[in-house]
């Protein structure tokens, strides 16, 4: 079963996939990338093969290799390596999820399939359940990004009752500007201790005020903005009484 111990929180870097000038993945710099994030930015969680990493534009074989490299190079340096395994095909998502578990990743994230789309919450839940079943030891996060997937099922609606159907479900990466939906996720699901990670950097401050437990982003990891965001998150972390 998925570990309940390691909650994914704070800043999570959505990593780019480094390429050579010939369009091949430049694996040789991923080790330096890990060091840069940890030593210069103070960020110890990564989100690999997502939007910033152009995961959907990579082949399955490339996605597997990139995931492996981050897990290997991040060992004993990073806290959590979350691999995005979303795909148009359920079988590909399952293959990537199983692979993430085999290589020792700390979690998986899944977008909704976006060509033949889930029509409603039940369809989407079923898809997530089938992916989750192939990696029963890994926490699963739903990656809500309706502007790119076209799947507009409200996150708050999805969260309602999901853990009963997908036991490894641990939260979501909310990449939408609908702060009403986000606020309802926070208000109605706070007690379930889901990770509610915000993904639109431009609105991060608002989301933190509303109760985001962390952020997955690309632009928050530049110099002073990272330090600033870390500071805000630290201030908002509940203090032991
Ligand atoms: C659509 C997109 O790329 N969103 C970025 C944001 O960090 C985004 O770059 C930022 O808000 C600037 O617009 C992240 O949420 C993406 C992300 O976490 C990912 O790579 O999966």
Automatic annotation (TrEMBL):
<keyword id="KW-0704">Schiff base</keyword>
<dbReference type="Pfam" id="PF00701">
    <property type="entry name" value="DHDPS"/>
</dbReference>
<keyword id="KW-0119">Carbohydrate metabolism</keyword>
<dbReference type="GO" id="GO:0005737">
    <property type="term" value="C:cytoplasm"/>
</dbReference>
<keyword id="KW-0963">Cytoplasm</keyword>
<comment type="pathway">
    <text>Amino-sugar metabolism; N-acetylneuraminate degradation.</text>
</comment>
<dbReference type="GO" id="GO:0008747">
    <property type="term" value="F:N-acetylneuraminate lyase activity"/>
</dbReference>
<dbReference type="InterPro" id="IPR013785">
    <property type="entry name" value="Aldolase_TIM"/>
</dbReference>
<dbReference type="InterPro" id="IPR002220">
    <property type="entry name" value="DapA-like"/>
</dbReference>
<comment type="similarity">
    <text>Belongs to the DapA family. NanA subfamily.</text>
</comment>
<comment type="subunit">
    <text>Homotetramer.</text>
</comment>
<keyword id="KW-0456">Lyase</keyword>
<protein>
    <recommendedName>
        <fullName>N-acetylneuraminate lyase</fullName>
        <ecNumber>4.1.3.3</ecNumber>
    </recommendedName>
</protein>
